[in-house]
Specification:
Elements lengths: L1 H15 L3 E5 L5 E4 L1 H7 L3 H4 L10 H14 L5 E8 L5 E12 L5 E10 H46 L6 H24 L2 E3 L2 E3 L5 E3 L5 E2 L4
Antiparallel strand pairs: 1-2, 1-5, 3-4, 4-5, 6-9, 7-8
Helix pairs in contact: 5-6
Amino acid sequence: MEISRDSFYLEDLLENTPFGIFSTDKNFRVIVFNREAERITGFKADEVAGKRLNSLIGISVIREFSHRLRKEKNCFFIDIFSAVLLKGGGTSRVRMVLSPILNKWGLFEGVLVLTDALGEFKHLYEGMIEAERASAINETAVSFNHEINNPLCSILGNTQLVLMEKGLDGAVVEKLKRIEKDITRIQRIAGKLARITRPVLREYVSGRNMIDLERSEITSKE
């Protein structure tokens, strides 16, 4: 009964691990192919069962493994970045760990292969970079608001006081209103910068990028 429970536990663990796992017999024919391996390659387990390992990974990797097996004659592992073959044609770059399966006498019984899709690592990494970028922008914007808002408010207040005076020349009034409008615009832009949740960049000059406020995601919360 204990063996049965352990068997179900191991089967569940194999099927629900976040790593693609497949193994072969001593003739390099696939005998185990879990759910994540199916997702990474597009093949179903019954489509690869009994097929040679080189139908899934490059022959150069298998040759390196065989060379190590002949040389070391004991347990080892190869940790590389390589490609797996996909059902629809083409390849997908993955991190791959290969290790021999040995019986209790130390004799070779097959290969265990663990794979991890680099695309997901890339997605996670890009998400982290994006979050850090947004955080840096927010911190800069908060500092900008703190340091510049007081003098801007002072300039705006004095400008509005001058505009209330009578007998001002029309050209002077126009310039003061332009100052008032530009200060309000600066305050609005600074407020948007502090509320960016997903920044979008666009090319500026000399290979530099700038934040595209129109395309960036901005929370409505003040």
